[in-house]
Design brief:
This protein is mainly alpha-helical. It has a single domain, classed as Orthogonal Bundle (Rna Polymerase Sigma Factor, Chain: A). The chain is built from nine helices and two strands, in the order ααααββααααα. The protein has a two-stranded antiparallel ribbon. α7 packs across α9. The chain starts with a helix and ends with a helix. About 9% of the residues have low confidence.
Length: 190
């Protein structure tokens, strides 16, 4: 049985569960990486990965072989991750404070870093993550797909449904923001 990507996609489109499982196994790590860079934490990235593969399962029949599967998949992943960010922002604005038993307002505690983030560790990782958090979801998506996934401008445009000039502008703005955010840290370490 042929396990090339086009063959596995065709089998998954025909409803073969094992073929779809193979697609998930082959691409889930990269989808997680894209989602993590957009949402900024493991829990939300996992949620975006689940949403991505649920959407892929439902829409696999609409995938056209003239496009690259990974470009199509990253588009679904980026959109799912940006949806998670939007939901998180709406939720945060509605529930910015909690009331304790006496009716006093208490701010939410900051989210503790997960084991993956602690494993990445180090001051550099923290500065980069903070700088990435300051990018808009669209800038994070374009920056991630370009600099961390290595996609071309054209592929990013297809993945994010943007014109090439808009992709270039998003990446340029992201790089400029990252440079400004990381400049003080770069001076400290030199």
């Amino acid at each position: 049985m042929d396990n090339s990507l086009p063959e596995v996609i065709a089998r998954a489109q025909a409803g073969e569960e094992e073929a779809f499982r193979m697609l998930v196994e082959q691409h889930s790590r990269n989808v997680f990486n894209v989602a993590y860079r957009i949402v900024g934490n493991s829990a939300d990235a996992e949620e975006a990965v689940q949403e991505t593969f649920l959407k892929v399962f439902k829409r696999l029949g609409s995938f056209e072989e003239r496009a690259r599967f990974t470009t199509w998949l990253y588009r679904v992943a980026a959109n799912a991750a940006m949806d998670v960010v939007r939901r998180r922002q709406r939720h945060a604005t509605r529930e910015a404070v909690l009331e304790d038993q006496e009716g006093q307002l208490l701010p939410f505690a900051a989210e503790a870093p997960g084991p993956e983030r602690e494993a990445e560790g180090g001051e550099i990782s923290d500065h980069i993550s903070a700088a990435m958090d300051r990018l808009t979801p669209g800038e994070r998506a374009a920056f991630t797909l370009r600099h961390l996934q290595g996609l071309s401008i054209r592929e990013i445009g297809e993945a994010l449904d943007m014109q090439s000039n808009a992709v270039k502008n998003s990446i340029f703005r992201a790089v400029q923001k990252m440079r400004r955010e990381l400049a003080p840290f770069a001076r400290e370490t030199s």
